[in-house]
Amino acid sequence: MLEKLVALERERWQTRRKTLGWVSAAMGSLSIVTFAYVAVAYSHQVDRAVLAAAIIMVPLPLLVGGVAFALGHRWSRYLLWPVFLLLLPAFPFGTAFAAWGLWVLYATRDGADTQRPSGDAAA
Questions:
Q1: Domain annotation covers residue 23
Q2: Residue 3 belongs to a domain
């Protein structure tokens, strides 16, 4: 009975991990598209276009880390922790999203359902 409950809880956290990963990837890609649109719209003003092009690099860790986290790669946590910490002051939606992200990252830190590199001896 206890094994079934543990398995059910592990499955729930795996679902939360995948959901957070894909939502992060969607938010990252939406941000990149938005900033690219702004860069093109202000392409006649070099200062603003350069600024918008530089800002495009900010959501890249969210996109890459989100996809990797959804697929179960352990290294994705190193990309997502700083991104979620930086999103905390972005009240109200950034704060809620970052709190949810940090909660899932912290709760799944043991990595029982994530992929380990093939050279890792830990089971």
A1: yes
A2: no
